[in-house]
């Protein structure tokens, strides 16, 4: 599975298929920048009947940011992000430069969606 990137931030599901019994999905994120990064995230499920991506979990601020040159594995819980059950999913990210401003998410770096993965 190919990693996707925007603004020197690389994102990739850890594998193509996740059994429901795993309880969630592992996403690998790497910040290759010399500055910290914050993100917003939502999950999308493919509707086979309509042939479109539909929001499975609305856009929300991520629980933790990325430090400069940091690589993390994020575990997204099925009970929250994938409660629509088995099927094809992808994760949508918005990335922002981390700032000390009182208002977060002001310096947008870009957006991307992960490669598609399955929950079985």
From TrEMBL:
Source organism superkingdom: Bacteria
Protein name: Uncharacterized protein
